[in-house]
Amino acid sequence: MFQVHYLNPISKKGTDLWKDNYQTANSLEDAQAVLVRSAAMHDLDLPEGLLAVARAGAGVNNIPLDKCAEQGIVVFNTPGANANGVMELALCGMLLGCRDIVGGIQWVKSIQNEGGVSKLVEKGKSKFAGFEIAGKKLGVIGLGAIGGPLANAAIKLGMEVYGCDPFISIDAAWHLDSNVIRVKTREEIYSQCDIISLHTPLLEDTKKMVNAEAFSQMKDGAILLNFARDLLVDDDALEQALKSGKLRRYVTDFPNDRTAGMEGVIAIPHLGASTEESEDNCARMAVKQVMNYLENGNIINSVNFPNCDMGICTKAGRVTILHRNIPNTLSRFTGAMAKAGINISDLMNRSRGEYAYTILDLDHPAPDSVIEELNQMEGVLRARKIC
Question: Which of the 8 DSSP states describes residue 233?
Answer without folding.
Answer: B
